[in-house]
Fold this sequence. Notes:
Layout: H1 5-35, H2 39-51, H3 54-67, H4 75-96, H5 117-124, H6 126-132, H7 137-153, H8 159-188
Helix pairs in contact: 1-8, 2-7, 3-4, 4-5, 4-8, 5-7, 5-8, 7-8
Amino acid sequence: MKYKPKNSSIIILVIFFVLIISFIFDKTILNFVVTHRIHFLDVFMVLINVSLSEIALFLLLTLLFFYIKDLRKHIPLLWLSMLLALIISALLKILVERQRPDVSTLIAVSSFSFPSGHTTVAFSAVPLIQRVFKKLKWFWIGLAIIIALSRVYVGVHYLSDILAGGIIGYVTGYSALKLYSKFLKNKNNLSI
């Protein structure tokens, strides 16, 4: 099945609409999640947050792409996508200065809340994975969603933080893919 950007655009618009609505219910949703934590899930979510930092995601995907010889040529694009996503996320945190939720957290964090950097970086790899590593596509999307939800579960982000992170990450990755593909096509008559 061929990847259709039109379907992705519709999904992004729906998520953007949900993002706008989520600002209204952020505190209610977060308080519900925090008050209904389950002990065995606490351990899993903390493990996800500790083991899958932005740097760990970067290294994990780099190793995966390096391991498969045919995918090595895509490592610069992977790095570009993830680095741009990280920079955009960091700049938005400084510009927006949204305070972290005032709830009981399972991990310690010190920066601002909006958007979620973990989510932004995780979703920035999705467009490239969709294009060149179709067998991993649904696994990676599922992992990115788990990473995003874990940030709300441990109490360090609101729902709107992770939705915005997902949108920003995906759009950044998609834009990097398009620019890179256009550059290669113009440079060498190649495309991804």
